[in-house]
Amino acid sequence: MMWRWNSNLPTMFRMLDEIKKEWDGIFFQEKNETPKVNLWRGKEGAILTAEMPGVDPTTLDISIVGQTVTLTGKTEEKELNEGENFHRKERKSGNFTKTMELPFRIDADKAQASFENGLLNLTLPQMESEKPKTITVKVS
Amino acid sequence: MEYRDNNYTQTENTHEAPIMVPKTDIIETTNSMILSADMPGVSQDGIEILLDKNVLTISGKTTPKKIENYELVYAEYRAVHYKRSFTISEEFDKSNIEASMKNGVLYLSIPKTPKVEARKIPVAFKE
User: Fold this and answer.
1) Residue pLDDT, tens place only, B96-127
2) CA distance A140 to chain B (A)
3) Which of A78, A97, A136, B89 is the most exposed place for a label (fewest CB within 10 A)?
């Protein structure tokens, strides 16, 4: 799975913001897949949060290459013993992988991840060299 | 507002956050019923388990996240209220339900009532 940010998106996001004010929900695209991801953007980079119920954080693998971040992990799988049986099985189990491409190169050394109540919080700072610089104009 | 429909999630908008039915596994073992429900983002303060007669209701609240100096630009999930009710039959011992939570999953263990052996009742004949 991959989604891409192309150069028209900043304009699109501005438009979306306008629509969002009118119609809450246009922005929200519920997907029925694991993990569900939200992405936050700031000056320092991005923060990715993901719903990962039943995922043991020690088995979660986060790999960052250039502009892409890949989450690979496994949700707990319940092995049935003798005399046990499922009355209902709705939860997803097994392996998952999700790749996202960000609009900037990620400083992998400064990336930080935490896990709480089944939520992943991944801070993805932008490479220092790629941050916008302010240039002052000298008036002679 | 409508969301994409699927088999096991239902949302409605009469509350401040949409109500969502948590995906649940139910396993029957020889001496208990094990229930596990996906409730990512629910903290200790947000969880509530209520037993009213034979109806067990689990509910969990997640709070909308705000990150200072960051703006949400892409979203696949949002803050919801998880809620689901189960009817428990007489076969189970409702006074000994155990609940725990780990990695965003609520686990409930409901023991079965020990079977009462059928016994004969002697009748005393009185004259």
Assistant:
1) 999 999 999 999 999 998 877 788 888 999 88
2) 36
3) A136
Residue A135, pLDDT score: 86
Residues A16 and A35: their CA atoms lie apart, in Å, by 24
Tally the domains of chain A: 1
Count of CB pairs separated by less than 8 Å, A with B: 127
Task: Identify all chain A residues contacting B9, using CB atoms and an 8 Å cutoff.
Answer: 32
Structural domain including A73 reads 32-77+92-128
Alpha-carbon distance values, B53 to A3, A87, A106, B56 (Å): 49, 22, 54, 8
Q: Which residues of chain B neighbour A38 with C-beta distances below 8 Å?
A: 65, 72, 74-78
CB environment B24-55: b (16+ within 10 A), e (fewer): bbbbbbeebbbbbbbbbbbbeebbeeeeeeee
Q: Does residue A137 form part of some domain?
A: no
* Higher pLDDT, residue A87 or B1: A87
Domain ranges of chain B: 19-111
Q: How far is B105 from chain A (nearest CA, A)?
A: 6
Question: Can you give the CATH number for the domain in which A106 is found?
Answer: 2.60.40.790
Per the domain annotation, does A133 fall within a domain? no
Fold of B19-111: Immunoglobulin-like (2.60.40)
Complex ipTM value: 0.74
Condensed to tens digits (0 to 9), the pLDDT of residues B23-38 reads: 999 999 988 999 999 9
**Nearest-by-Cβ selection for A41 from B3, B70, B104:** B70
Residues A18-27: pLDDT tens digits? Answer: 666 555 544 5
| Pairing label, strands B81-87, B19-20 | parallel
